[in-house]
Amino acid sequence: MNNSTASSTLPFDHTVPNCPATSERQQATGSDAFLEKPGIARANLAVSAEVPDGSPTSKGAAMRDYTVLQQHVLFWDRDGDSEIYPWDTYVGFRDLGFSVLFSLLAVVIINVNFSYPTRLAVSWWPDLWFRVYVGSIHKAKHGSDSGTYDKEGRFVPQMFEDVFAKWDVHGAGSLSAGELWHMIKGHRLAADPFGWGAAIFEFGTTWLLLQKDGRVSKEDLRQTYDGTIFWRIKEARERGKGWNKGFGLRDLLQLGQRQLKARVA
């Protein structure tokens, strides 16, 4: 479904010749054909043109009390105390199938960098346990991102649709590692190295977790925003079926072997 061309000609210009980027990065101008008021942020639903009602979830009504950004991080708040300790982060990443070293790296990046911003809703004093506070997770929103989460942690459908209208250059309904990289570069703001690094870590991790045949699907990415895909992955791994997507050490070794064989041939 390509909603960038679903609408008729707009009554105003959305590209100009003196800024080629406005033509190269087309907006999803037809979102309103599939979503009501796509520019209005949804407080507790991550929606798309294909899934206008958001994710069906067994938790149902309980999730309505949390913003989409809060839902995104609840996977790491297993005891429901609204505080994500470093070991909560570690356990969550291990449950998703990441290695010990990567999970430890995630702890350093997430808890060290995002603890104090979320702590400010509680106290000016830094948290000695480096806890991340779910209730004020919106304070950890960084720059140079896609804008899909607004500053209060709500989900903006138009911004999500724009991600694929602008960066899914082949209209495949998915993003390759290269397209994700171009997106990250396109979203960079001046003098924002922290935001650049955070975006690289977040979308790099997303690709490692979700890629299949080198691409991350639109639906998988949507479920990343509301966190439902994390529970799906955990359940698949616990049932013994495993998660049939992602890129791990085995894939890296296989890639190296293929490259070696190609050189020998």
Automatic annotation (TrEMBL):
Compositional bias (Polar residues): 1-10
Organism annotation: Chaetomium fimeti
Annotated InterPro entries: Caleosin-related
Family: Belongs to the caleosin family.
Chain segments carrying region Disordered: 1-28
Name the UniProt record assigns to this protein: Caleosin related protein-domain-containing protein
UniProt xrefs under Pfam families: Caleosin
One of the record's GO molecular function terms: monooxygenase activity
Domain of life the protein comes from: Eukaryota
